[in-house]
């Protein structure tokens, strides 16, 4: 197919003249003198190879060739205008696509408020949400398959990535309802020393895993892990069956299971961090917009 080479000023002049059917009025709309308008139309006709307008004293009309070209000219000019508007919106951070990874437990805390605030401020932005544990989020940020990560216990030093704490919450003990310690309001970590544990695998969230086992070590024992589960919903379900106990972020209490009891840890000084993560060299303006929305949500 032959590639058309039609300068936009000529195409624009043609479309305006086709609407006005009067060289003087069309020139006024275009902000040019009438002779340059006539020259643009003549050059366009030379490229087409046929007259686009019939010119008679006191009357200008589209020829059959002109009538055939007009819809395509309008589409081309309209598509270009739409494309320019879309490019400007994306470039300014008002539109585009933002890919977000999040730890499943954050759907119980920071994620709903963040997405609500962001969508209210930037309704034209498409959000692609991916449920991922911490380690896969770090890898996805490096691979540029997500733009933002919301994760627990971020690494202390990860080249090329930025982290900002957005939430700190206490830990709770997750117990079968029939467990003797479920009768009290709080549990001391040391009291769990003889119980088997259900934990997330370390490879999916090394920071959180080490934080939990570190609490046990500080209480004088090494947890005996009876079962691993990738999601907190599954951890709680396995605890309900009596396979073991667990330590979890306090937001996990929103998972309602009849056979599971959540009890505060005593003393309540141990906390887990939730952080937002991003690539420091990411040129996508939407990343900065989301960080701003997150800060605004924290202040509400």
Automatic annotation (TrEMBL):
* Pfam families according to UniProt: HTH_1 (PF00126), LysR_substrate (PF03466)
Q: Which SUPFAM superfamilies match?
A: Periplasmic binding protein-like II, Winged helix' DNA-binding domain
Top-level taxon in the UniProt lineage: Bacteria
PROSITE patterns linked = HTH_LYSR
Q: Where does the record place the HTH lysR-type domain?
A: 6-63
Entry annotated with the keyword Mitochondrion:
no
Q: Which InterPro entries match?
A: LysR_HTH_N (IPR000847), LysR_subst-bd (IPR005119), WH-like_DNA-bd_sf (IPR036388), WH_DNA-bd_sf (IPR036390)
Entry's Gene3D superfamilies?
Periplasmic binding protein-like II, Winged helix-like DNA-binding domain superfamily/Winged helix DNA-binding domain
Give the UniProt keywords, A-Z: DNA-binding, Transcription, Transcription regulation
PANTHER family, A to Z:
LYSR FAMILY TRANSCRIPTIONAL REGULATOR, TRANSCRIPTIONAL DUAL REGULATOR HCAR-RELATED
What family, per the record?
Belongs to the LysR transcriptional regulatory family.
This protein is called what?
LysR family transcriptional regulator
Q: Which species is this UniProt entry from?
A: Streptomyces milbemycinicus
């Amino acid at each position: 197919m032959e590639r058309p080479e039609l300068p936009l000023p000529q195409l624009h002049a043609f479309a305006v003249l086709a609407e006005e059917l009067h060289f003087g009025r069309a020139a006024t709309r275009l902000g040019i003198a009438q002779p340059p308008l006539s020259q643009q139309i003549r050059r366009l006709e030379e490229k087409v190879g046929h007259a686009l307008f019939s010119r008679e004293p006191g009357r200008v009309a589209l020829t059959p060739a002109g009538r055939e070209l007009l819809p395509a000219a309008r589409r081309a000019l309209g598509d270009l205008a739409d494309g320019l508007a879309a490019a400007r919106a994306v470039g300014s951070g008002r539109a585009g696509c933002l890919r977000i990874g999040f730890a499943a437990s954050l759907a119980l805390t920071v994620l709903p408020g963040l997405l609500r605030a962001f969508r209210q401020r930037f309704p034209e932005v498409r959000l692609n949400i991916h449920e991922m544990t911490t380690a896969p989020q770090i890898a996805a940020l490096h691979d540029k398959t997500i733009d933002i990560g919301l994760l627990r216990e971020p690494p202390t030093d990860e080249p090329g990535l930025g982290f900002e704490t957005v939430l700190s919450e206490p830990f709770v003990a997750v117990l079968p309802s029939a467990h003797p310690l479920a009768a009290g309001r709080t549990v001391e970590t040391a009291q769990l020393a003889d119980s088997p544990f259900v934990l997330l695998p370390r490879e999916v969230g090394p920071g959180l895993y080490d934080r939990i086992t570190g609490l046990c070590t500080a209480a004088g024992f090494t947890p005996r892990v009876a079962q691993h589960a990738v999601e907190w919903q599954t951890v709680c379900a396995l605890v309900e069956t009596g396979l073991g106990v667990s330590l979890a972020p306090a937001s996990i209490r929103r998972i309602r299971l009849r056979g599971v009891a959540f009890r505060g840890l005593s003393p309540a000084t141990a906390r887990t961090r939730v952080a937002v993560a991003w690539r420091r060299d990411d040129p996508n303006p939407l990343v900065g917009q989301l960080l701003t929305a997150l800060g605004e949500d924290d202040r509400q």
